[in-house]
């Protein structure tokens, strides 16, 4: 029955699209990136249409919260790989479809997702939920000249269109809305909306259990008179930590840093001591700090909401709530009481630090806020509400806080289904050879907005010439930024694979990057800069290091300024040895500039040598004639300098220049010496700008 239905469907598609197009559909290799809301729909559509060679990548495992709309998954699949289960599920939909290959991995960081992997497909289709992965797939498809079909949804709105380098705009041709952020002082001192309190709570999460130095609430606590052991025993005693904290207050510092310092093992393993530590942290954050700021007079001068210190004793019922939430969370859809917030905050901290694995991860700064981690979410929700109550701002349910904290727009299954259907249609059109710029689709399910039309079409705009991804030649450097050293990058990659001779590496710190002032740069030329940096992993270099997404410029004045711009993508080599780290390096895109410059340089040197030889013969003849005539053969340094400069900028075929060099500098240098002389790095003020300008025009 299923088989005859499939045969009937295939006959319909043959009639609609044409047998030749359907043959391409059956034989083409298609990569689907993402097996979530859109991916499940898309795989089903592609299999039903008759795509014969599908592969799917997803890094996630199935969560209970996926089951309502990611319809290929069932309760028994929770915890298993999304891509594997999705591939299994859709294979049964069409007995004529071939096997579907699934990959459980991160499309950005996974070692196997190299340029060759992408080149193995005729078509790539995105079914992703985040900008970083979309940008990466876009970049890889541009570099490997694959056609990409991009689609996405936000609530009731969605879109789908084809991207082909040079023919259409790419994913990054248009600026993306940046995640809304708030001034640090609003977060730290003057919140007036729930979202400010939630942002503060996420920073507090980092301070308490995550990467503390990266939190905007972090203040260095390096007073030498309070060694850590003394501090934690004082904190363990709870509010008695106040005198030490007040000493800090007199110096204008925040008073909570000592109280939120992570408890040591002796405290963590002692239930009573850990509970006391948690209360000490509560007291410092919600009472002492507020009291101190109020006493300073002008801290809240401009604040819309003035805070009231919150002693734990005012949080009625916190002890019972703490006890209850140690075993069961608060109801997610109801706004909790003050006592419940306080109890939930204390129990979340105790649960966190009584777990040795979480404790260790926290000490190593490895715990990042994840809205889907129940304990992290509980801590943030409780802290956000306590902060809100302190400032007289409305408290919210954990569900509401989660949707704000995770910037979640609710996913609508119907929008995903429409977007996936359009992507599948675009896939057939792409294989049929239709112009990729023909159609871009906007989906709006709410008819009030679109005037009654669910799907409207338009042409895909052309590439944006100013686009940083498709508007200029860039290479992608895939490597393990945490393990590959600067020396390995220079010797193995830049001088090895790319053919540089004396690469000069330059990158800038990203905005507000930890450990680097905004706008700071890193520039490195071996033999001139600090050699001790060579042994450092790329991520540990100054100016924020070389990390995923960073743009690195490499140029080489030994090769006439040959220049390559590279976008770095971090690839995990966990568990692999040094050889694995070196072997994992991949350069994608056009990096012919150094080789071309080297070839041009060698050709030029050869030509110069030939001309020098013939000019020397001519000069000898002229000198003989001049001697015979009694003429003057004074040299002139100015002319030599001009001649030398002009020669560097020209193709070296100007006989006058050659003659002047010969006249001033004596016998011609052999090519090898000439090239070593030109290796000198020009000073910025004299030669840098003209060279760069010339390269820019090329
Ligand atoms: Zn672009």
Automatic annotation (TrEMBL):
Chain positions covered by the region annotation Disordered: 218-248, 628-698
InterPro entries on file: ThiF/MoeB/HesA, ThiF_NAD_FAD-bd, UAE_UbL_dom, Ub-E1_IAD_1, Ub_act_enz_dom_a_sf, UBA_E1_SCCH, Ubiquitin-activating_enz, UBQ-activ_enz_E1_Cys_AS
Acidic residues bias locations: 633-660
Pathway in which the depicted protein is active: Protein modification; protein sumoylation
GO molecular function, one term: metal ion binding
Biased composition (Low complexity): 228-248
Domain Ubiquitin/SUMO-activating enzyme ubiquitin-like: 477-571
Domain THIF-type NAD/FAD binding fold: 16-438
Keyword list, A-Z: ATP-binding, Metal-binding, Nucleotide-binding, Ubl conjugation pathway, Zinc
GO biological process: protein sumoylation
Record keyword DNA-binding present: no
Protein family: Belongs to the ubiquitin-activating E1 family.
Protein name per UniProt: SUMO-activating enzyme subunit
């Amino acid at each position: 029955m299923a088989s005859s239905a499939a045969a009937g469907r295939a006959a319909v598609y043959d009639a609609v699209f044409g047998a030749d197009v359907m043959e391409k559909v059956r034989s083409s290799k298609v990569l689907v990136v993402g097996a979530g809301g859109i991916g499940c729909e898309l795989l089903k559509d592609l299999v039903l249409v008759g795509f014969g060679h599908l592969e799917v990548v997803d890094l996630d495992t199935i969560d209970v919260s996926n089951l309502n709309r990611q319809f290929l998954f069932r309760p028994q699949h929770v915890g298993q790989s999304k891509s594997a289960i999705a591939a299994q599920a859709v294979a049964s939909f069409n007995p004529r479809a071939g096997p579907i290959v699934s990959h459980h991995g991160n499309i950005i960081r996974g070692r196997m997702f190299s340029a060759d992997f992408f080149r193995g497909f005729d078509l790539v289709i995105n079914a992703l939920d985040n900008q970083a992965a979309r940008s990466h797939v876009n970049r890889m498809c541009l570099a490997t000249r694959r056609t990409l079909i991009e689609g996405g949804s936000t609530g009731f709105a969605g879109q789908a269109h084809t991207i082909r380098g040079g023919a259409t705009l790419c994913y990054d041709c248009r600026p993306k809305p940046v995640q809304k952020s708030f001034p640090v002082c609003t977060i730290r001192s003057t919140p007036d909306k729930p979202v400010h309190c939630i942002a503060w709570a996420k920073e507090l999460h980092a301070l308490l259990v995550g990467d503390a130095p990266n939190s905007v609430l972090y203040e260095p606590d390096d007073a030498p008179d309070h060694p850590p052991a003394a501090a934690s025993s004082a904190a363990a005693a709870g509010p008695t930590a106040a005198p030490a904290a007040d000493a800090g207050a007199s110096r204008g510092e925040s008073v909570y840093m000592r109280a939120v310092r992570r408890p040591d093992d002796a405290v963590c393993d002692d239930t009573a001591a850990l509970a006391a530590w948690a209360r000490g942290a509560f007291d410092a954050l919600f009472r002492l700090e507020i009291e101190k700021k109020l006493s300073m007079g002008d801290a809240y001068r401009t604040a819309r909401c003035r805070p009231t210190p919150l002693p734990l004793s005012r949080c009625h019922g916190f002890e019972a709530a703490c006890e209850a939430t140690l075993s069961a969370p608060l109801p997610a859809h109801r706004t909790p009481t003050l006592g419940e917030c306080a109890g939930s905050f204390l129990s979340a901290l105790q649960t966190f630090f009584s777990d040795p694995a979480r404790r260790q991860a926290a000490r190593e700064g490895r715990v990042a806020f994840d809205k889907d981690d129940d304990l992290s979410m509980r801590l943030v929700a409780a802290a956000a509400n306590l902060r809100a109550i302190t400032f007289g701002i409305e408290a919210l349910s954990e569900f509401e806080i989660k949707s704000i904290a995770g910037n979640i727009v609710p996913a609508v299954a119907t929008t995903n289904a429409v977007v996936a259907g359009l992507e599948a249609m675009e896939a057939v059109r792409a294989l049929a050879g239709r112009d990729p710029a023909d159609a871009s689709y906007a989906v709006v399910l709410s008819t009030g907005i679109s005037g009654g039309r669910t799907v409207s079409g338009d042409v895909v705009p052309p590439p944006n010439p100013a686009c940083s991804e498709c508007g200029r030649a860039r290479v992608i450097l895939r490597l393990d930024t945490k393990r590959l050293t600067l020396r390995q990058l220079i010797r193995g990659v830049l001088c090895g694979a790319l053919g540089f001779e004396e690469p000069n590496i330059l990158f800038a710190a990203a905005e507000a990057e930890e450990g680097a002032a905004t706008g700071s740069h890193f520039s490195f030329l071996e033999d001139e800069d600090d050699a001790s940096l060579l042994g450092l992993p790329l991520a540990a270099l100054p100016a924020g290091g070389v990390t995923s997404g960073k743009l690195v410029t490499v140029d080489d004045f030994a090769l006439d300024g040959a220049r390559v711009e590279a976008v770095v993508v971090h690839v995990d080599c966990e568990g692999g040895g040094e050889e694995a780290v070196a072997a994992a390096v991949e350069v994608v895109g056009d990096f012919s500039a150094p080789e071309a410059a080297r070839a041009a340089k060698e050709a030029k040197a050869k030509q110069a040598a030939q001309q020098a030889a013939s000019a020397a013969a001519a000069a000898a003849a002229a000198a003989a004639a001049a001697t015979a005539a009694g003429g003057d053969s004074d040299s002139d340094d100015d002319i030599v300098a001009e001649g030398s400069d002009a020669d560097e900028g020209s193709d070296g075929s100007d006989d006058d220049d050659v003659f002047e060099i010969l006249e001033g500098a004596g016998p011609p240098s052999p090519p090898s010496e000439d090239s070593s002389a030109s290796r000198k790095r020009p000073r910025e003020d004299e030669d840098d700008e003209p060279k760069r300008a010339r390269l820019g025009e090329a």
